[in-house]
Amino acid sequence: MVIQPPKVFVSYSWDDDEHQEWVRSFASRLRADGVDARLDKWHTGPGDNTPEFMEREVRGSDFVLCVCTPRYKERFDARKGGVGYEGGLLTGESLVDRNQQKIIPVLRGDEWKYSAPAWLLGIYYVDLRGDPYIEKNYGELLATLLDRREQAPPIGGIATSGKKPKTDSEFVNRKIELATLDPNKLHKTYWQCALISAPTGYGKTRLVKRLMEGIQGNVELNDDWVCVYVDMRECKDSDYAIRYLVEQITGSPVTSDMDDKRLNDLVCSHILEKLSISPKDGTSRRILLVIDSIDFVNSKTVEWFSSVLHDVIVNSYADYEKNNPALIVRVLLVGTDTETFWVNYRNWEEASQKYRLKPPQMLTLSAFDDLPVQELVQYRAAKDNISLENSVIEEISYELQYLSGGHPEVVTDILEELALRRFRQYKDYFKDYREQLIKNYISGVAKKVLRQFPLPQAQKDIKTVCAFRLINLNTLQNLRRENLVLELMDISFLGKLCKFNILKPPNAEKLFYHDDIIRRILYLDLAHGLGKDDEHIQNIHRCARSLYCELMQSSHHSLHLFFVEWLFHSLQVTGLSNEDIISEWKVLLAAINHSELPLDDIKHAIIEKLNNDGDVKYLFHERYGSRDFSPLFES
Question: If you write DSSP's letter for every residue of 18-30 in order, what string do you get?
Fold first, then answer.
């Protein structure tokens, strides 16, 4: 049986040539995506009866898309011209047939209240403002037209086919974590406490929620386990954190006269005596306690929660010294730096002379490298029955890896846009929309990463310091001398950057925890945002060059890293010509004091690092049309 595509009439006003071209392009894209989109320009000609055409299209279409702009609103409300005539047809269609879901407003102009006809103000609209517009919004519209919107899950108790749902694409690189947090094996695990640590947007929260959903979605497990989830991000006042934890765990408000000891006793008794007993039949239940965003807990709350954590686990045993548990308790702590919390816990344990709890299970989520990104692309294409050749998958993955730095949230968001376009003309898409993609997705994650630093000037200064990957007194003096940081600003943000593992000085063993996003903040500044401020960029470049040169002469063990960072920085300075970059590189190379290390060894280390740095290879290829770095080392 042949399925007919939905018939969709596009109602719009002839604002100007640019708007008419946008409508034509929009309707063409709908047709390419399987929708029979119909325009007056395509389906009428000289001698045609225009009112008859309008009546036929409005009444015979499955949907009518009203492209809303201020001019469309004006003509619709005043019943002027073709739009006014269509307006009368649409209101009549809605009143007579009571089929208002047939009419979908598409916001293309100013704000909704200035673009929507009065009759459409209360209708759910699709926002397609901007060039390019947001792909997710177009995808939602397309899913509605093709009847592919997500359906409500089946009501519990009804038999299903027994097929397992497909693995969520975000977890292609989380096999170890998924095995460790398997809900069916959770009661057999050897760990009491697991620490899940990763940067913002790596899927920490989704991972633990997946675990809880796996328990709650299984009748047997749901009867056997009780899950308690607390997200400390929801606590807006750090001074109230202890009471917030108590209220979230117990489900009851606490009075202001209760001290920390009583609050501890209240939580422990609630978990061990109430939650552990099934209200159905009084049998014993297992307990899963999840504390998300543990980084938001202040030092006072850490000490209090340490005592709660210890007392709950120890008292869940009939005999802790003999490893004889009375009931099973599992604790998950989630954050960007859970290891610091555990170090603080151990310090509290030693000072309190309590039992030593078993070492925690450490789960550190990593960024996606090339293979997981390729797997994601392959998975997403297969999900929509799109056939992609291996070479195309590799090319798309390469572009995605560069733009995202392997950051899972950014990878999946951009990939979703590509999939909605069915991967058509992906090369032009990456090239033409790069700035918009960075602004839409990278900057969104960057705001989460830098949430501790809300001041615009402070954020700008942080980005500048991140550009150099350096934290020391000489660096700050240079930055101030070039007017890149405020003379009197509070520089304690540097300590916070270190504390939250966002920025650390470069070394041969470990680069930066959030390097993938910090690099893209810099790219946004140099290539797009601040790139128009030539004086500022020149100050940054001059300061960076002097700092790198100074460190190259004094830090032999990480010399190759400084060269790579300098090149990454320089490739993005739009005011530098290709010849300037190679010339400056050779000046730096000639300035190396190689009395301790042979120059050939240093060059070999630099080349190896360059070849392993996808960002630099990408930018170098854009500049020089090649991924061959040999011109940098020619005499």
Answer: HHHHHHHHHHHHH
N-terminal to C-terminal alpha carbon distance within the chain: 70
What is the rounded distance in angstroms from the CA atom of residue 583 to the CA atom of residue 335? 45
Question: Within 10 Å of residue 32's Cβ, how many Cβ atoms?
Answer: 12
Rounded distance between C-alpha atoms, residue 274 and residue 256, angstroms: 23
Strands 361-364 and 317-319: unpaired
In eight-state DSSP terms, residue 255 is -
Strand-pairing partners, residue 330, are 288
Report the DSSP beta bridge partners of residue 228.
289
The count of residues in the chain is 635
What's the pLDDT at 223? Answer: 87
> Among 623, 484, 634, which residue's Cα sits nearest to residue 544?
484
The first and second tokens of residue 298, run together, are: 């202040």
Which positions ≥6 away from 104 have C-beta within 8 Å? Answer: 63, 64, 65, 66, 123, 125, 126, 141, 144
Q: Return averaged pLDDT per consecutive 10 residues of the chain, 635 residues in all.
A: 73 92 93 89 72 80 92 87 81 53 88 86 86 89 83 46 43 87 89 90 90 89 92 85 92 88 94 90 92 88 94 93 90 90 93 91 89 91 90 92 84 89 87 76 72 62 59 62 62 62 51 54 59 66 73 65 80 84 86 68 85 85 88 82
Token pair of 303 as six digits = 């000490």
111/574 Cα distance (integer angstroms): 35
Comparing C-alpha atoms, which of 516, 503, 422 is closest to residue 466? 503
User: Could you give the CA distance from residue 506 to residue 561 in angstroms, rounded to a whole number?
Assistant: 7
Residue 193's SS3 state is strand
